[in-house]
Amino acid sequence: MVSGNLARKLALLLHPSLSQSLTAFSNIAELKQVHAHIITSGLAHDIFTNIRLIAFAAISESGDLHYAKSLFDHIEHPTLFMYNSMIRGFSQSNRPHESVKLYTRLLNAQISPDKFTFPFLFRSCSISSLLVPGQQLHAHISKFGIDSDVFVVNNMISMYCSCGELGNAWKLFEENRRIVDVVSWTALVTGYSNSGRVDVARQFFDNMPFRNSVSWNAMIAGYAQRGKIVEARKLFDDMPERSVASWSTMISGYSQCGMCSEALDLFGEMVGFGIRPNEPALVSAVSACAQLRALEQGVWLHGYVEEQRFEVNVTLGTALVDMYGKCGSIDKAFQVFNEMPEKNVLSWNTMIAGLALNGCGKQALTLFWRMQVMGPAPNDITFINVLTGCSHSGLVVEGRHVFYLMTQEFKIIPQLEHYGCMVDLFGRAGLIKEALDFVNDMPVQPHPALWGALVGACRIHGNVELGEELGKHLVELEPHHSGRYALLSNIFAAAKKWDDMAVVRKLFKERWVLKNPGNSVVETRSQVATN
DNA sequence: CTAGGGTTAG
């Protein structure tokens, strides 16, 4: 960096307006360079300079919270502004709990918090559902006399909503009737929607004395997430002004309830109107392609993302990996995955799932080992995906080892899905006895689907006796599941036990027709044949 | 001296 440039950056960092100051650098390396200059030129003891350094590192998008914390820790008596900047920084990090710790430090240093301290503290409590600290902070609000600041109150309302304390949120709202604004109303709409009480949310929405597009979006999202997509669409059509978020809310609503062509149509309409989509809209459209296995449209979207120079962040990158994986373009999936600058556990899981789905069990395992070395800690989903890969590729020894690793090393308690993978792993490999032993050793009640997988394995590998026994058991366990009859019937067919097969079909017909009076016999037959 | 909240994503 030439010195003129350095001076310009320094001047911008120390600009009176903080928002100007936050544009000073495009990355943390530039900040560190200016920081070095600050030290050599004796500015390092100037409080204001330090304030700006910390604020930039903690708050700016191109900042570095870790670096901010180390600057902060080297200051003997940090100012309230420094505390507030750090609390804000941690509230938008992956360790929001740290901001509560900083608040404790602030109190220990005999500093009185102000109205800028609390909104971000409550935000941290919201993200991590920290109800008890949230309640304690609520008590401090009155103690420090800042209980009638609408920003503080609104963040408290959100905090209670996130912790499932709707009654407290509403009480707080009522107590502050004189100061509540459109944000407070919208927070309640969101809170009640997220708790599944979308009808109550609608009442708040209808009673709002003022609305803006965010309030409409909140209500649309509330409906869409409860599957009430018609109501959501009606609001979308009726709203006076749609923001980009309105479009992406509606598109993601369609995508999430499986109405994928509607999602893609609306995305097309949006682009057709000349509206530049945002990342959530792109992610939802890519996800719709994944669900539809629509490779061609997915490729088009990927091209659009590159051509329009959208940043491929973790979420968008993962959505693309998922799309390519589900559409069978595993090389393309791997390419996007490898090019992602930042990956989280979901990105790794998605890539492993793609490999597993495409029968690349060995590669799924290799990626899993690479994840141990250079990736995030695996979670229960990671193991479902790895085990699926093993079972699809007949990697019995490896699968057994991975299961051992999961329970013994990672201390992850196996869910039904994990057991299902193991039964599938043994069953597909024809190791019926191992599968049976495994099911019998399970500490939880086996789900009918597990027996189903076993009976399927018996049929494929000609283990008629066990198949018969388990199949009968399964039919009695789930007398209204048509697939169970089909399986048992197929077992008998494989053993050429035509009489037994006829009995099963008759039994099925009676029970099925009884429960589904609208079905004709022809349909019933086709059900048996195809299931 | 500076500053903040409610909507949308894999």
UniProtKB/TrEMBL annotation:
InterPro entries: E_motif, PPR_At4g14850-like_plant, PPR_rpt, TPR-like_helical_dom_sf. GO terms for biological process: RNA modification; system development. Pfam families: E_motif, PPR, PPR_2. PPR repeats lie at residues 79-113, 181-211, 212-242, 243-277, 313-347. Keywords: Repeat. One of its GO terms (molecular function) is RNA binding. NCBIfam families: PPR (TIGR00756). Belongs to the PPR family. PCMP-E subfamily. This is Pentatricopeptide repeat-containing protein.
